[in-house]
Structure formats: C-alpha cells, structure tokens
Amino acid sequence: MTLNQLRYAITVSRSKSMNEAAHSLFISQPSLSASIRELEQEIGIVLFRRTSRGILMTPEGEEFIGYARQVVEQYELIENRYITGAPLKKKFSVSMQHYTFAVDAFMEMVREFGMDEYEFAVYETRTANVIDDVRRFRSEIGILYLNDFNRNVLTKLFSESGLEFHPLFDCHIYAYLWKEHPLARRSRVTLDDLAEYPCLSFDQGSDSSFYFAEEVLATHNYKRLIKASDRATLLNLMKGLNAYTLCSGIICEALNGEEYCAVRLDSDEKMTIGYLVRSGVHISPLGKKYIEEVSKYKERVLG
After folding, report:
1. Whether the model pTM is above 0.85
2. Which of 70, 148, 166, 237 is surrounded by the most beta carbons within 10 Å?
C-alpha cells in the first residue's frame, strides 16, 4: 500500500467515474484502474463497485476512505512543516443535532484557538447525518441525545458503525415557546395543554424513523404537527403560529434572541446529551476543548 494509492482511492471516491478521477489525477484510466485493483487485492476488500451509473463506494470502502484521508492529511502536515515549510492549517469539524448550546460551545473553542493555524467546520444537521459524518471522518465529534426510547436502537447502530457514545449530562423535557405564547408564563405544561398548538419537529428526510427524531416523545399522536429543516424556520413558526417544540431547556439567548423561553413539561421523561466519536481514535486537543466547552452546559441544565 502506497501513499499514491491512498490519494488515488480518495480521488475516485469523490468522482463520478474512473475516467473523471483519472483526468483530475493526470494519469491514464487503465493505470488508475490497475492501481485501485492492486490496492483492493492487498487489503482484501472491494472499495468501489462499477455500475452503469458510474462508481459506487462499498460500505467497507467508505470506512477505508475515512482512514485513508486521515493518513494523507497527517502526511501533508508533516510534509509542509518539515519539508516544504509551507503553512498548512490543522482541521477540526463537528456535527450536531440542532442545539444552540453546541454551536455556542463551538464558538468558544474557536475563540480560544483562533483561526490563524486552524480550519474549522460545523454542521448542524439531521441525526443520521451526525452519525454518518463521524463514521466517515467528516467530523471528529458528533453531538446528539439518547433516551429510553431510542437508546437500544442507536447504541446498536453506533457499535456497528465503529462509534462510541459518551454521556455528558441529563435533561428534563421542556416546551420551547415564544415569550408571548399563552402558556409561556406557566411553571409547567402538559401535552394536553399543548394539544391545540402546532408541534414543530426537525425533518429527518429519508431517515424518518422515530428513533432518529430530534425531539423526545416522537411517537405521541400530535393533533397538529409541522416539520421544518432548520432552526431559524422553527423560531419563526413559534412566533407566527404560537407553535412549540420539545427541547432540553438549555437556552442560548445570545444566539436565538430573548423572545423565547422554556417551560418544563410535566413528565418524568429525560434525555441524555452526549458526544459521539470513532472507537479507538485519539481525540485531538481541539476535540477535547470542544467537549470541555459543551460539558459546561451541565451547570445550566434547568431543574
């Protein structure tokens, strides 16, 4: 296995066809195909399947490419630091369900490390994407929740994907409302109290299983339900329709503004916020700092 073979495989994974990959690498298509075949024979797995529609990566190939990217990026860091002397920024990325506190923690980490030596990425996305981003090394860390309903299914999925979930803190369930909502001044609300108001839920796309829902109590039969794809839209719907969503109760007014509040749901249900990483993979200093910043929100969990 050579570094060039790893680079070739990474390029093929980003291309629609072997011809396209060969063109971008400035080599012939037969030479590229032969190199990929030799690599597949050496490692004992099939990386790509050739179809009439182009190239498709196998599940084993996706995992291998994730590791290959790490090896190539680390080599480039060494090469630029000790051979060419050219500066190369270290990279850190995190994927998360739609949590403002996770975005706020990301900003604190960026402020501490600065952007002169680092390149950052943050993906606020669907549950399945959070899992897949960490599995494929697109993100070093994923932030999501488990509860009694989804724990067994998601934990099994994590294990099958070579991932580990580490809990950070437990939260009660809150209704997140516009401050002028008729129920906003209550100390507690029930689902019956909320029944006449639209419930808002983050759309999970093709992965619409209840186990992937970002809101707890996903199996409840809501009288009025609206799905949206981003946090800004949900906030607008809360204000315009007196709608609500279910959340951890951790409010970041600096990001969402002061027009919203959280009212405790009269339920014993809890959610465990935690982080997802690749099993056996060392967490970078930036990753450790990010986890430290997210952990601070344990002090802001409402009773």
Report:
1. no
2. 237
